[in-house]
Amino acid sequence: MAGALDGQVALVTGGSRGIGRAIALELAGQGAAVAVNYRANADAAAGVVSEIEGAGGSARAYQADVSDTAACEAMVEAVVNDLGPVRVLINNAGTTADRTVARMTPEEWHTVIETNVNGLYNVTKPVWPVMGEAGGGHVVCISSIVGETGRLGLVNYGTSKEAAIGFVRGLAREGARFHINVNAVAPGFIETDMLSGLNEQQRENLMGEILLGRLGEPEEVASLVRYIVTEGTYITGSVFNVNGGMFVH
Ligand code: NDP
Questions:
Q1: Using a 6 Å cutoff on CB, does residue 118 contact ligand 1?
Q2: Spatial CB neighbours of 19, under 8 Å, sequence gap ≥ 6
Q3: What distance in angstroms lies between residue 165's CA and the mean position of ligand 1's atoms?
Q4: What's the 102 CA to ligand 1 centre distance in angstroms?
Q5: Residue 189: count of CB within 10 angstroms of its CB
Q6: To the nearest whole number, what is the mean pLDDT of the chain?
Q7: Is 157 part of the annotated catalytic residue set?
Q8: Is the pLDDT of residue 247 over 80?
Q9: 121, 157, 227, 234: which is the annotated catalytic residue?
Q10: Looking at the DSSP assignment, which residues form a beta bridge with residue 241?
Q11: The dihedral sign for the CA sequence 186, 192, 196, 200
Q12: pLDDT band, very low/low/confident/very high, at 23 (cuts 50, 70, 90)
């Protein structure tokens, strides 16, 4: 396999399923050696690695909970030792715990913030000097339309996803002099396990909000990420919507 990322190492958090899996496959297709991070589902991560290897690419799975600072430091050290310096980081791992604030438990608040917000810092921090010393690269954080618009019952999640945009806008300023471009991708509603809790009525209501009248596929997010990290030499501090035409303002 050869491509724009030939010889580069890409770390995809939450690369075992859904959008992260599609991104891992896409970047491997461009020649990157992909570190597939996961939290619990080792079989799914191993499946992604096999799929990449089966197509002639290179990948390895790494367990770490992104909300655990020490585990992320150890993971990045292992990735660099095994595969080489990380030049592409996709902060994709994320979780939900939907409930109105009136009913939300402290744990439901903290789990989402610790994974979706602290995870950005925990993984980016150890990657940052490695990427800078290697000559630069790309950091892409997966935000959400919910971080741009807010949504009933998703205050914890929306807060975390707007934080991802703040993270990207500030970090892009730090990254410029190290040749590190930092961007966010804000998907709309994408067909993954994360949406498995939606019932038929909720799905039907959602369709009325989406101009294209359907949910997105993980591959439709992955191709945008691929564009940013392979072609986006003059793109940093930006937020890209991939939402089938949902109004964000
Ligand atoms: P899935 O639930 O399908 O997959 C989640 C992935 O994240 C899995 O690989 C999971 O690992 C991993 N993960 C979850 N928590 C942690 C953690 N604490 N540490 C490490 N890995 C973790 O989600 P999606 O693919 O749908 O979502 C991916 C990203 O895209 C998330 O940030 C999400 O918020 C965002 N997004 C999703 C949208 C959608 O409609 N699906 C829309 C907008 C944004 P494991 O397999 O081990 O559980």
A1: no
A2: 92, 142, 187, 190, 192, 218, 221, 222
A3: 17
A4: 25
A5: 22
A6: 97
A7: yes
A8: yes
A9: 157
A10: 186
A11: positive
A12: very high
